[in-house]
């Protein structure tokens, strides 16, 4: 994962994220839903399988995580104001640039065929894809605290973007540096990334 996605501070700024490769899976609904949890398990399972395969093949290793979520709503509202059931999302995890679609296909085949495995016959695992994301400029800030209070930090990013004479897109991304299962809500660390309207969504 590029350092630009990790080294944000509490001061909003605008940065360029280099072109990169990720595995991704789409969905809709609130983050606590069963659909979201299944997608999360699929993404992590595929990432671990890719990592182990590279180790067996003596190829360069890579670190798994952190998880990245891209959020938006089809309604004419900021995502934070839309009903949670109307939220749409893409979960992403960084992978090396030399990971191929063939590598991914093998990983999917391995996890879905493993008898008794967590992803045996998983349709969610089969929906995981490989994306090549282009370079992109975004507004950025480190949010410390519960996810429910992110709106104040996103407002700071919006102000910084507008200070540069730019406009915000209706989508933003979050890089989760803390584990909500272990960290206290007031100590969660999340890098918030606001897309610029002039850039358009990545392909």
CATH fold group of the largest domain = Multidrug-efflux Transporter 1 Regulator Bmrr, Chain A
The total beta strand count reads: 8
The biggest beta sheet is recorded as: 8 strands, antiparallel
| Terminal CA distance | 18 Å
Level of helix content? 25-40%
Poorly predicted ranges: none
Q: Please state the average pLDDT score.
A: 90
Q: What share of residues are in beta strands? A: 25-35%
Sum up the overall morphology in one term: globular
Based on secondary structure, the structural category is alpha+beta
What order do the SSEs take from the amino end to the carboxyl end, as H and E? Answer: EEHEEHHEEHEE
Which CATH top level class of the largest domain fits? Alpha Beta
**How does CATH name the architecture of the largest domain?**
Alpha-Beta Barrel
Number of domains: 2
Radius of gyration: 17 Å
Description:
With 203 residues, the chain is an alpha+beta fold. It folds into 2 domains: 1-19 and 135-203, Regulatory factor, effector binding domain (Multidrug-efflux Transporter 1 Regulator Bmrr, Chain A); 21-133, Regulatory factor, effector binding domain (Multidrug-efflux Transporter 1 Regulator Bmrr, Chain A), CATH 3.20.80. The protein has helices spanning 34-56, 101-113, 123-127, 150-163, and strands spanning 13-17, 20-28, 68-73, 87-95, 129-133, 136-144, 168-176, 189-196. Strands 1-6-8-7-3-4-2-5 form an 8-stranded antiparallel beta sheet. Helix 1 crosses helix 2 (101-113). The longest helix has 23 residues, at 34-56. The radius of gyration is 17 Å and the shape is globular. The model has no long low-confidence stretch (mean pLDDT 90).
